[in-house]
Amino acid sequence: AQSVTQLGSHVSVSEGALVLLRCNYSSSVPPYLFWYVQYPNQGLQLLLKYTSAATLVKGINGFEAEFKKSETSFHLTKPSAHMRDAAEYFCAVRAGGKLQFGAGTQVVVTP
Amino acid sequence: DAEITQSPRHKITETGRQVTLACHQTWNHNNMFWYRQDLGHGLRLIHYSYGVQDTNKGEVSDGYSVSRSNTEDLPLTLESAASSQTSVYFCASSESVADTDTQYFGPGTRLTVL
């Protein structure tokens, strides 16, 4: 069985500051990990995914995530937050063809 | 451009009524999924299909059904709507069942059961 835990349901960051969203996974098989973003009143959009090719994964909109097997983590970062980054972010693990989502982290960006 | 659409975008219904939510994709993907999104739970899988005439139960399938008669559509039916089924519903599709494959999501349907 596999699962993900996202630490912090709400994160507030200042514009221009580092964005760090935490995700830890549990999986009995090598995991494939995803970060999705959901803007208000929209569906989910893929930010990036880890497929074992490289531990540091770069995604869209300046986001990146690092897979750390020893820490069972896949934290999402962005060096400098922008107002348009205000959204909900979901970490997910996929095994056996099905996605298992975390509870989500709401990001608020303050001027 | 290929896309995945859902209708209606908003629906209010009464307890006990049958409701069908539509999902249509033009990606020509074999795999389609239905999720519900609730605060504090993220997205949970309701049903999924790996091809025409194939349907499978997900994590929270009780009270829901799906049928797949063609590649493009996977309608979700609530046989007798309950207040506990008030939620936002998302449809998704993917090209393959490979765990590395990306799922593409529709815009969602907000359902309220009174």
Describe the structure in your own words.
Chain A is mostly beta strands and 111 residues long. Chain A has strands at residues 3-7, 10-14, 19-26, 32-38, 44-50, 56-58, 64-68, 73-78, 87-95, 98-101, 105-110. Helices cover 0% and strands 59% of the residues of chain A. In chain A, a hairpin with a 4-residue loop joins strand 7 (64-68) and strand 8. Chain B is mainly beta. Helices cover 0% and strands 51% of the residues of chain B. Chain B is built from no helices and 11 strands. In chain B, the strands form 2 sheets. In chain B, strands 2, 4, 5, 6, 9, 10 and 11 form a 7-stranded mixed sheet that branches. Chain B has a 4-stranded antiparallel sheet with strand order 1-3-8-7, with no helix packed on it. In chain B, a hairpin with a 2-residue loop joins strand 5 and strand 6. The mean pLDDT of chain B is 94. The interface between A and B is medium-sized, with 23 and 26 residues.
Largest sheet of chain A: 6 strands, mixed
Q: How many beta-strand elements of chain B?
A: 11
Helix count of chain A?
Answer: 0
Oligomer: heterodimer
